[in-house]
Design a protein that fits this description.
Layout (H helix, E strand, L loop, with lengths): L14 E8 L5 H14 L4 H20 L5 E9 L2 E8 L26 H9 L1 E8 L2 E8 L7
Antiparallel strand pairs: 1-2, 2-3, 3-5, 4-5
């Protein structure tokens, strides 16, 4: 595979992808395509693209299925210290930073359904913050570009 140098992001500027998605799971195709385009634009690599898609899909699907959201907003930004993701929905208050950590060592038949998506997001993202502001769930997190434990 040909090495493509990553574009540098000056410290004073952010390069962003902003999307508003309808509360329809068919929007996953657009989410995936736009995330891929953003990652290609900055030569971020398949692993980082996979991680961003995993986290965005988990957040979006949970917002629609469990929160009944009719629309969500998100921004992915290229910053000097990685890729920052800001996600917002108007569903019921839900703080993913307070979700229980699943016991991934338990036998499958003993595990409750669900909860692994949030667990996986915690594994690949850093600096996860949640705020409830004016009826919006707002989640901010960062995916380092360098290894930093990912």
């Amino acid at each position: 595979m040909k090495h493509v140098p990553r574009k540098k992001c000056p410290p004073h500027r952010r390069y962003t992808l902003e999307l508003v998605l309808d509360g329809n799971l068919a929007e996953l195709a657009r989410l995936t395509a736009e995330t891929a385009r953003f990652c290609r634009q900055y030569a971020l690599g398949d692993d980082l693209e996979f991680d961003l898609n995993l986290v965005l899909e988990e957040l979006f699907v949970n917002s629609v299925r469990h929160g009944g959201c009719k629309a969500v907003e998100f921004e992915v930004a290229m910053t000097p210290d990685g890729v920052t993701l800001e996600y917002a929905d108007r569903g019921p208050a839900f703080d993913p930073t307070q979700a229980a950590v699943p016991d991934v060592t338990a036998p499958l038949e003993d595990r409750p359904v669900g909860g692994l998506g949030i667990h996986l997001a915690r594994q690949v993202m850093r600096d996860i913050e949640y705020h409830r502001v004016d009826g919006w769930n707002r989640i901010r997190m960062r995916r380092p570009i360098a290894s930093e434990g990912t």
